[in-house]
Amino acid sequence: MSIRLIVGLGNPGPEYEQTRHNAGFWFIDNLAHRMNAPVLKKESRFQSLAARVPIAGQDIWLVAPQTFMNLSGRAVGALARFYRIPVEEILVVHDELDIAPGVARLKKGGSTGGHRGLNDIVSAMGSQDFWRLRLGIGHPRTSNPKMAVIDYVLQRPGKEEQNLINESIERGLEVIPLVCEGRFDVAMKDLHTAR
Fold first, then answer.
1. CATH number of the domain bearing residue 121
2. From the annotation, which residues make up the binding site for tRNA?
3. Sheet holding 5-8, edge to edge
């Protein structure tokens, strides 16, 4: 079992581009750049920006749904059904409130933690057994307890926090070849080991 589809979650449009909720989009952009991929192109039938790139000897879809976060399942489900990609061969990259900035975690399945983008993908795919690369953005309870979660995720991180998120993106990028080869245990050990 390996990965054939990597989805970065976020919201389209310039007003959301630099917000915490777009960490998945940032990851996909960085991965495409690292793989010398062509610019992600609009794929209307999948409501996404997408490109196919070779990673670890396989053709992998890189996808940034343009449906807005809460409807991410429409894009993921359409592409996965069209190319007959099983749920276990999908990696979804997303922002994670319950992880500190600078930390990235890889896991398969489990709770969505109330993340609406993940909830919609579970609904569209009929399963929660896809892989997730969780990029820590922290929680407002640690920095501003009175701030609503929605306001926090749709806000731009400060410079120091952005640098930490960029570090977690870099760590995630380093294990992508392992993930695409299906070497999940090795990828998790590498990613989850403190440096």
1. 3.40.50.1470
2. 16, 68, 70
3. 41-43, 48-55, 58-65, 5-8, 90-96, 131-136, 104-108
Which of 21, 94, 115, 139 is flagged as catalytic?
21
* Residue (of 195, 153, 148) closest to 171 by Cα position: 195
Give the containing element (helix H, strand E) for 61. strand 58-65
**Is 192 considered catalytic here?**
no
What dihedral angle (degrees, nearest 10) is formed by the CA atoms of 114, 103, 48, 83? -90
User: Domain of 171?
Assistant: 5-192
Q: Which residues are annotated as a binding site?
A: 16, 68, 70
Alpha helices by DSSP H, listed for the chain, are 23-34, 72-82, 116-125, 140-143, 149-153, 159-180, 184-192
- Give SS3 for 101: coil
Instruction: Using alpha carbons, select from 169, 125, 138 the residue that is nearest to residue 5.
Output: 125
pLDDT per residue of the chain (195 residues) written in tens, 0 to 9: 799 999 999 999 999 999 999 999 999 999 999 998 778 999 999 999 999 999 999 999 999 999 999 999 999 999 999 999 999 999 999 999 999 999 999 999 999 988 999 999 999 999 999 999 999 999 988 888 888 999 999 999 999 999 999 999 999 999 999 999 999 999 999 999 976
**Number of helical H runs and strand E runs in the chain:** 7, 7
How many domains does the chain divide into?
1
